[in-house]
Amino acid sequence: MPDGGKAERQNLPLVTIGMPVYNGADVLEQAIESVLSQTFHDFELIISDNASSDRTEEICRRYAAEDSRVCYVRQPRNIGAEQNFVFVMESARTPFFMWAAADDIRCPEFVEKNYEFLLTHGDFVASTMPTRFAGGGFDSQKMGDRPLDSDSPAKRVADFFSGWHANGLFYSLFRIDVLRSCPWLGASFLGADWVVVLYLASRGKLNRLNCGWVELGRHGVSNSGAIYRRYRHSWLDLFFPFRAMAKAAWAISSDFAPGFRVRILCSCLKMNCWALSNQLNGALYRHYRLLIGRSSA
Fold first, then answer.
1. Measured in whole angstroms, how far is the alpha carbon of residue 111 from the centre of its chain?
2. Are the beta carbons of 114 and 128 closer than 8 angstroms?
3. In this structure, are 39 and 159 located in the same domain?
4. Nearest by Cα to 60 from 21, 105, 103, 13
5. Where are any strands of DSSP class E within 182-259?
6. How far is the CA of 115 from the CAs of 105, 109, 110, 170, in angstroms?
7. Least-confidence region, from 96-105, 168-177, 262-271
8. What is the pLDDT of residues 169-215, one digit of tens each?
9. 18 neighbors 48 (Cβ within 8 angstroms)
10. What confidence category does residue 249 fall into, taking pLDDT thresholds of 50, 70 and 90?
């Protein structure tokens, strides 16, 4: 039995790429091709179809039949986006893992270069490449893919709050043991993906290489005003939309010096103010459009 178990472990790939998808037929093929075109070949692609009603199943089954590295799972019912992300991660059997959204693409060297970096830098828990949205430019400040590589965990967490930005670091290549230890995986609140990165930053350094690229799709709910309504469970969420994120950040920083904790708390309060302003501006704009529509009818 020990020999058989050892042989089984030796046959496992080194990297798992998890691709959660729901009704992604229009963009899915390009995302899968981007993964299968990687110069690093020793990986498994796990696609979790969240009970799609379009051609997603047909596309995935075709790729799974053509390439043994593709593992396709169709959920019998929609388990929600957050749990679908958790499902592909928990299905991984490898020491390294990354998420790939169904509308994202990467340069062919993404896995190879980041794997090589993590293999030779044991104090880093994640590594990625310059990130942009489709049709946009590379801006580490706006995309949130700046390296968090200070020797101080408190400074790494505090430095994440550089302003309102996307979460480019969320689509890094991770050490799966550290990622799996995050208590907030699968949580459903505004900024939960940021909390995952904050937790990782408290456990180790996060790298951004100066070569290659990642292009994130624009089809996700986070790129629309609907993101606030999705996580609005009570009237408190209207005025303090990031309150759950702030609570998690406070817990993550429990061992930090008071100065860093105050800095993190102030950043969370500032983000709540920005989010409230965005919601009010959006409501005023929708009201204005409604008035214009009525006046022109």
1. 16
2. yes
3. yes
4. 21
5. 205-208, 214-216
6. 17, 10, 8, 16
7. 262-271
8. 999 999 999 999 999 999 999 999 999 999 999 999 999 999 999 99
9. yes
10. very high
Choose one of 164, 191, 223: the last residue of a domain: 223
Q: How far apart are CA 68 and CA 264, in angstroms?
A: 45
Q: Is residue 82 over pLDDT 90?
A: yes
> How many independent structural domains does the chain possess?
2
3-state class of 263 per DSSP? helix
- Domain of 51 in residue numbering reads as 12-223
Between vectors from CA 203 to CA 201 and to CA 258, what angle results, nearest 5°?
Answer: 75
Residues 36 and 52 in one domain: yes
- Domain of 195, CATH number, reads 3.90.550.10
Are 40 and 89 found together in one domain?
A: yes
Task: Give the integer Cα–Cα distance in Å for 105 and 68.
Answer: 21
Of 223, 239, 258, the one marking the end of a domain is 223
pTM of this structure: 0.89
Q: Is residue 218 part of a domain?
A: yes
210 and 242 in a single domain? The answer is no
Answer whether 50's CB lies under 8 Å from 78's CB.
yes
With left for phi above 0 and alpha for psi between -120 and 50, is residue 271 left, alpha or beta? alpha
Q: In the numeric block, which tokens belong to residue 130?
A: 């310059």
Q: Indicate whether 204 and 235 sit together in one domain.
A: no
7 domain residue, yes or no? no
Using CA atoms, how far apart are residues 121 and 55, in angstroms rounded to an integer?
A: 42
Which residue type does 270 have?
K
